[in-house]
Amino acid sequence: MTRILIAVDEPRREDDEIALTAIARGLRKADIEQVHLLAEPTEGRGGASLLEEIDVLTAPIPQRWWSRKRIAAELAAALTRRPVDLVLYSGNGVALLARDLAAILEVPLIADIWRSDQIDVANRSPLVDAWIARTDAVGNRLRSILRAGTVITARPPLDIQATTRLPDRRPAMVVLDPGRSVRHAEPLLDALTSVLAARPDIEAFLELRGGASHKLWKMIERRGLLESVSVLDRVGTMGRLVAEATLVVAPDPSGPARSLIPIAMSGGAALIAASNACEELLEHDVTAILVEDGEVDNWQSAMLDMSTDPPARLRIAHEGQRRALEACRPDVAMDAWVTAITTTMEPESYPLAKTRPPR
What we know:
The chain is of the alpha/beta class. Helices cover 43% and strands 17% of the residues. α4 packs parallel to α5. The model is unreliable at 349-359 (pLDDT under 50).
């Protein structure tokens, strides 16, 4: 039986736990045995298995450069009795440890890619044998810059049921994290303040995560939004929230291929986004409203139009739902993940002695 190690850092787990759990479950059904490498528990987070009855190893993630080699050697020793055939990692914080561990074990290494910054540095990562692109947009960009390595597109296997929205229910808006640029968040928050003043019936949720969250919190507080917005930090684990929302706003200008986007679309939410750079499901005025210039008036107009014009919102939501359900069909998606793993392990695609660069 094939046995693989899946390494996930805590930020990635918090962002993508629904999809990662579905992937792990699908691999198990395909008779691919797994051991998960997760971050050591800190302050009540990390360490818990994605699925029951799956072996778990923990390590400090990320780690200091001078301790990484030692940690990788200790992990390799722990796998001696039950070795793995491949290492797959998801999350920038665990990338270097996964690379070192694959080198010690002399097994192939697969990287999970969903963001523009990961694409930009991919060509400087010669030790990765295969890349799993979460969308065709990511996969096409990877293929255009890589000189070596296999790229396979594999969407998350999402089984989301359409949500019945009651006529008298308050509209709900979920605003996802605006990304690393505080500058881009200013017009978004100004627009959100105006929209909620005009539509106080909207139930609003705002995701804050990552290094800029403290500055963003101050910006929210300064605008008085804490009285009308619920601020959340782990929306990636709250599939039902986004699937049942009326509107989901994805303001990150880099347009990452977050699994929350097809989850929201599959549930029937209408999408407003800053970019579709990594997600081809978002097509302007067809499956989403794109606000690429990030101006206050345009954010405000998009949010008000989608919340006050039900026919236009439903037209976009229905087409988005149809495309998302088709793109993330569990059987098709899992076939792609299994193919990525099995083909990377085949000798002709992984001639260790001939083509892998020295470690």
